[in-house]
Structure formats: structure tokens, C-alpha cells
User: Fold these one by one.
Assistant:
Number 1:
Amino acid sequence: MMKNYQKFYILAVIVFSVSFIFPIITYASTEIYFQNQPKQIINGDTFSLDLKIYSDMSINVIDGTILFDKDKLEIKNIEKENSIFSMWAKEPVFDNKLGFISFVGGIPEGFKGNNSQVLKINFVAKKSGEATVLFQDIFKVFLNDGLGTQINPSLRPVKISISQKDYLKNISEYVFVMSQNYIYYIALCILFVLFIIIRVYLKYKNNYEK
């Protein structure tokens, strides 16, 4: 296991060194995007965005920074268990005060495919309004060619609409639930009274017949 990590770190160093000295840039069809956006988000809700990748060429390193509206959003945690990237030269980290996520992930054997998971980001909606989650311009992807060939990926940000809590609606729902419970208790009381009346009637009838 340690040998694999050592190979990855050596590979990452070579990739970055070669890319700085001989910046090879290709325009392979590679796309980074968000998926699983909820249709309706209320202030105070917790929701998730899946960061996905598509590439028609084999890649092995991703180096990126994601920016988010720190006034309206807060990151609860980041999940990488289902990520296609098995090694992390830089573990995914986030800063809610500055509003960013940063990471460097790798997959030594390379990856080529569609709609594959990079990270799952769990947010908390802090304030109503429209919030944007986007990519920093220096977001990098590298081909699995041993040359440090950098890809300029297509980046798809996402806009999130956060609604204010409807307190009147919450109150009306509460009143409705309470009224339903009130009717239920009244019905129980009526049944109990009827039961007592029937018992008294039957007892009186039996005594009268005797």
C-alpha cells in the first residue's frame, strides 16, 4: 500500500514539474460539473451536491479549487468514499469563512468514463437568495500519459435558489395538526360517554327486569 502511495506522489511531482517546465495543454473533451441539485431549498435546509467528471481520454490527476457563496452557504462536510480518485496528494479541505474547497486527487491506473464521482459536498443553507457554486480558473486535469499533459476541462457551475421559511405556512400546518388531534380527542370523549351511558342503561334494565 505504501509503495502505491509513493508511486503516486512521485507521479504527482513529475506531472507538476513537467507541466511547469513544459506546459503541454490539450483540449480533450473533459467536463467537471455538479449533479443532484435539489429542486427546492429552504433557509436552514441541509442538501448535497455531487461533483462529477467526464473524460473521453484517460486522466490520472485532478487539481482544483471550488468557490461558494460564504454568506448564503456553509459546508457541513465533504465525502470522498465513493470517489474514483483513490489517492489524495492534498485531502479535500474547506474554509467556510473564505468560501472555498481545495483538493488534489489521483488515480494511478488512470480513468476514462462518464458521470463519475469526484466528491459529495454537503451544504447548509444559511440565508435566502441566489447562491453560486463555481470553479476557480486554475482548475487542472492531467492526462495519464506520463508527460504531464494538462487538459483545459469544461467547467459547469451551479446556481442555487434558497427560499425564506414561510412561518405563516408552518403556523397553519401546526394549527391544522392540533385541530386534527382536538377532533380525535373529542371523538374519544364522545365514545367514552356513550360507553358509560350504555353500561348504565344495561345495568338499569337488568335490575328493572328482576
Number 2:
Amino acid sequence: MGLSVSAQQSNPIGSLLLDIFLVFSAGKVERMLTRDLIESLNLFGDRPWLEITNGKGITDRELSQQLRPYGIKPKNLRTGETVAKGYILADCADVFRRYIPKSELEALIPPPESSSSSPS
């Protein structure tokens, strides 16, 4: 766990990608408007990627700038009558697989409950 925390502290983009993955997973969605993603990310509190923003919340421009080198770009998404910029989970999946350490994902999965009682 110490190595994992140390790796996140030295790699803010890794923690940002993990948090984006968590937002998509928690919402159980395949697409998310940028404004909704940013709102959720800014709720995380003290995270290593906040050094990118000097401790302030991330903006749509900063998010786009951080993800662009990885080939992730916002697209026009339609929600009802509204068209707004947003992200598609499938566009991020390969980057998540490559840049989020497996140990980080495993640390998020609660251990299975052990059955300490035996049938009588």
C-alpha cells in the first residue's frame, strides 16, 4: 500500500485517471458530460492531481489538457435536446488499463466476507 500511495503522489495523472474511472463506475454510465465529470472530480477532496490546479478544483479546460496526450478528447454528446461536451467510457478504457495500476483497483475491492459460523 505504501508503494501505491508513493506512486500516486509522484504521478498525479495516474490518480486523476483512477478518479475518472471511479466516477464512471460509481455512476454506472458509458457517457458523461464534462460538467458532471468535473463536478464529481472536485468532490474528491485532497488528491495528488490537485497540484495540477494549484489546489483549486479542476476545470473543463484543465481536464481536457491533461487527457489530450493520452488520446482522450471530449466529444459532443446529446442528452435530450441538449448537446454538450463530454467523455465516453470506451474512449478511456485502454488508457485506464495501461495507466491505472492493478494494485490500485484491487485495493478498492473489499475483501470477501468470510463465513466464520459453521452450520449446526
Number 3:
Amino acid sequence: MRSSSPSGAVALLCLVVLGLPARAEETAPAKVDVSGALPRSASLGQAELSALGGSASTWTVHGSRHQVTGVRLDKVLTHLGFTPAPMGKDVPVAEKRAGFRKVVVATARDGYQAVFSVAECCQGMGPGEVLVV
């Protein structure tokens, strides 16, 4: 799916749907469905996500300390075959790191959405970190 931008450089890379139970009495295990312009799609449960390796994040808001452990989104994307594409003098400018010009649309079960550039999700591309928790 291409955007309506003149360059057409932004494409939908994947859609992440957080399949969390709506009520406590629902016993179906939580799954994260990942699909879109990736080599593979998957419905990942806690065991599959844990196998990718955890990462902890801690922050303080209004004097309260919070901490979560999750899996970095770039690890999930790489697990499903994403590569940023080559870089180097011999690579045409339009093809350099073409994967970093894509976006991730994360959609929760309640319809809330967040959009990230793939580059900001990848380790080493900046100080931020996107976790699937």
C-alpha cells in the first residue's frame, strides 16, 4: 500500500494488532498479529515474543517510576524477514536503506493507532526504542 505522497517513498510496512482480551474472564492468550509488506506475516504469542529477547524500559512521570519489559519492534520485524536494504557508494541514492523509508502502523484492539518510521524503531538509529509489550 503506497501513500499519496508525491515521492511515494512511504509505504505501509506492517500492521500490528494487539490481541489482548477485552475482559478478564476471556482466557484466550494474547497474540500480536503482524502483517503487511513483509516477507512473512505472523501471529506471535508470548512464547514467540520472549524467544526474541526482552528489553526493559524505565521512566518517571509526575514522581512515579514505571517499568515495562517487552521486545524491541525491530527484532520482531527482523524475525519476519525485514531488512533495511543496502548502503554504500555503489548503491543508487533511491535504493539506500529503502526499508527505513517505510512506516509501522500499530493498531490496538480498541482502535487506538500509533505510527512509527521504521528507522526510529531500529537500534542504533537514534535514542528511542519501540517495544511490543
